[in-house]
Amino acid sequence: MESLSEQQREQIRKISDDRLRDNLRKVGMPEAAIVAIDRPSLLAAWAELVATGRDKPAQGPGALAIPPLSDPDLEKRRLDFEERKWAEELDMRRAEIFTQQQVRQAELDAQQALREAELAAQHKQIKLESEKLNSNKNVCVCNVKIQIVLWLK
């Protein structure tokens, strides 16, 4: 940026980040590099292109192609970061699903235990009612026998 005039430096400083990115795309800088760098790096890259006269996109069929600006190390670091981020997101999602499954299983176990307790209570109630009916049946049979005996007399 030092090789530029003060007026050019001031104009470059006033350019928005989005416009800097657009300008760098137009001259062939890879999208991955543009997205990964911060404002000072964007300014430096654009200033270098302006200073060397490569700030205009190639025009016409006979124009020389401008070699794309790329940093393989930066690209590798970005890809490594993305891979780690995706792996962490996947691990978090798996843990979340596992936790949800455990909660669901606990709910199902609680529902089953409640249902079993209800069935046991119903079974006990039926047994008590059955015993009560058998007791009443015996009393009724005894009453009938007594009435028959009394009637026969």
Question: Could you write a compact summary of the structure shown?
Answer:
The chain has 153 residues and is an all-alpha fold.
Q: Would you give an account of this structure?
A:
The protein has 153 residues and is mainly α. It has a domain at 1-69. Helix content is 78%, strand content 0%. The chain has 5 helices and no strands. It has helices spanning 6-14, 17-26, 31-36, 39-52, 72-152.
Defining traits:
78% helix, 5 helices, mainly alpha, 153 residues
For the largest beta-sheet, the strand count, sense and barrel status come to: none
Q: Could you list the spans in which at least 5 consecutive residues all have pLDDT below 50?
A: 60-66
**Helix residue percentage:** over 70%
Radius of gyration, in angstroms, nearest whole number = 43 Å
Which structural category fits the helices and strands?
mainly alpha
- From the structure provided, what is the oligomeric state, counting identical versus distinct chains? single chain
Amount of beta strand: under 5%
- Secondary-structure element order, N to C: HHHHH
For the record, give the distance between the C-alpha atoms at the N and C termini, rounded to a whole number: 134 Å
Number of strands: 0
Shape: rod-shaped
Number of continuous helical runs:
5
What's the layout of helices and strands?
Layout: H1 6-14, H2 17-26, H3 31-36, H4 39-52, H5 72-152
Helix pairs in contact: 2-4
